[in-house]
Amino acid sequence: MENNITKEEKMEESPLRRASETQSTSPFHRVSQDTEPFLFRNNYILAGVVILTILLFINQLLIPRAYASGIIGGTVNLGKFEYGSKITLKPMPLAQGEEPAISGYKSKVKPIPTISELSTTPSTGDSVQDLLNNVVPTGTPFYGQEAQVSFDDPITSQKNWGTYRSLQLSSSEQERWNRIVNSFTCDYCCGSPKNPTIITHCGCAHSIAAQGMAKWFIKNYGDKYSDEEIYGEMARWYALWYPKGTIERIIQEALV
Question: Are 137 and 236 spatial neighbours (Cβ–Cβ below 8 Å)?
Fold first, then answer.
């Protein structure tokens, strides 16, 4: 009722009204006075609980995102090398006038961008384990079902990649394929660091698979990925097929 009293009425309050305000005989009046502060306190507590609940909910949403950001898109350092979720390491032929990292070698380990993306495992302090975790791939890449391949089944995948060697390419696609495969070396099976073999001169199953892989990516994703990324994806699979040779070579050059 007090909210409905005009300013004039407040200025000219009657003695009866003033007297009534000093009385506390009404049980209803006493209850309202006693309970109002308690209700306010309850409201403050309720508001605090609501705010805390909201903050906890937001925190639970952010924790998975923070964790994911730590394992996707990350990199690991090993000496002068950096590798990670979309970067692998592979010996590549020396460019004209380029010096090898190790005397007498005709290829040099370099970081290369890839097509597939791996979950990066933080460094364990053990270089060999870190390379096993982050250079040797596991799981199934996004193109796995389409190409019928999986990092978890390297032998079957190798055979399936090899079947794409017979894909027919346009003249421009063929030119691109020649450029990629004729700069990709085999350093472990048909060749060695001092005498690497270009995979088109190698008849092993891994070479055929890599050649088929290059054709498949050019044919199906040629407008999306660069020659370097296709090359890098081939290197990723070579790390799977030759994990021991890959890791030994990387560590050897990382220590130089």
Answer: yes
